[in-house]
Amino acid sequence: xxxxxxxxxxxxxxxxxxxxxxxxxxxxxxxxxxxxxxxxxxxxxxxxxxxxxxxxxxxxxxxxxxxxxxxxxxxxxxxxxxxxxxxxxxx
Length: 91
Hints:
Arc Repressor Mutant, subunit A; single chain; mainly alpha
């Protein structure tokens, strides 16, 4: 097996003991569901991707990524669900 050399980390250990790798990241053109959003936020938070790399790779706006990150940090994965936006939106 050959591994492509990449700058930075290839894997990170999450607090629950699971390992997040570059292969675990969602494809750039996917439908965004809460679990995929959480994976991208975790990848940035734990250093697998930089914030700018994530924004560029997935075609996000800075505001969109920051909203995901803030919602996930405050309320967990459920706050990333589109159906829950009103419930977790800040006043």
